[in-house]
C-alpha cells in the first residue's frame, strides 16, 4: 500500500501512523503496549487489527464495531472469546465468519460439533450461543439486530423498505447524514435517473479493483472495503459530500485513494447550486 497505509497520507512512515497492525503473543511487548494504550485512550489511528486470541484479553476496549473471523474457531468458547472483543462499550456490533468446506469437514479432528452446527444450522445464532452456555436469549426490539437468520425474517419498516429498494434502481431510501448547525448542502440532490447512473459507474469502479472475484476468504468487498452497501450510501447521499476527505471521514473507506477516485466519479454528476 505504500504511503496509503499511513494517516494522514503524507505522515511519516511510523508504526503509530499506520491504519492497520498485527497483534499476537510473539509481537514486541512495547508495540503491544503502544497499540493497547492508543485504543484505550481513543487516540489510535488503527482501523484494522489482524489479531490472535492474545488481543484484548482482560481489556474492555471501546469502539470495536466488527470482528471478522478468517476460518472457523474449534470451540464455542474460542468463538465467544473472539467475537466478544466487539461491543464492550454497549453499542451494536457484528461478527462475521468466513470459512470454506474444509473448515467444516470431518478432517478437522479438533472442530467441535457445536461449531459445525453453528455455521450450518438454519436457526437463531444467539439462541445456539446462549443455550450452549446455559441461558435463554432475551427478545430484541428488532429481529434484524439479532443474527443473520433473523435478519432474513425481519419485517420491520426499515427491512421492508430495504428489501423493496434492493429490487429497484435507485433505492427508495431518502436518509442522509445530518449537517452541523449552520451548514448547507453545496449541491442539489440528484434525481432518480442520475442516482442510478452514478451507481452504475461506482459498480464499474468496484469491479476494476484488485481482488475482484471469489477467493478462499471472500471477494473485493473484503479485500478493498468497497461494498455494494457503501456504493448505495455514496450514490444516495452524493449531494451531501464536499470533497474526497469528506467522503473518507463520513464513510468507512480502507484506502484514501479509493475515496479520491470515488469523489472524482461523484463530481461528474454534481452541479453547484
Structure overview:
This protein has a two-stranded parallel ribbon with strand order 1-2. Strands 3-4 form a two-stranded parallel sheet. The chain has 273 residues and is mainly alpha-helical. Helix content is 38%, strand content 7%. It is globular. It has 11 helices and 4 strands. The longest helix is centred in the last third of the chain and has 17 residues, at 192-208. Residues 167-176 and 214-218 have low confidence and may be disordered. The two termini are 37 Å apart. The protein has helices at 29-41, 76-83, 113-120, 125-132, 148-153, 157-166, 192-208, 220-224, 228-236, 244-250, 256-267; strands spanning 20-23, 48-51, 66-70, 94-98.
Instruction: Return Rg in Å.
Output: 21 Å
Q: What's the total count of β strands?
A: 4
Number of helical segments?
A: 11
Low-confidence stretches are 167-176, 214-218
Strand content: 5-15%
The residue fraction in helices comes out at 25-40%
Q: Mind summarizing the main beta sheet?
A: 2 strands, parallel
**How would you classify the quaternary structure?**
single chain
Strand order of the largest sheet: 1-2
Question: First CA to last CA: what distance?
Answer: 37 Å
Average pLDDT, all residues:
83
Order of helices and strands: EHEEHEHHHHHHHHH
Family: Belongs to the helicase family. RecQ subfamily.
GO molecular function: 3'-5' DNA helicase activity; DNA binding; exonuclease activity; four-way junction helicase activity
Organism: Acropora cervicornis (Staghorn coral)
Enzyme class: isomerase
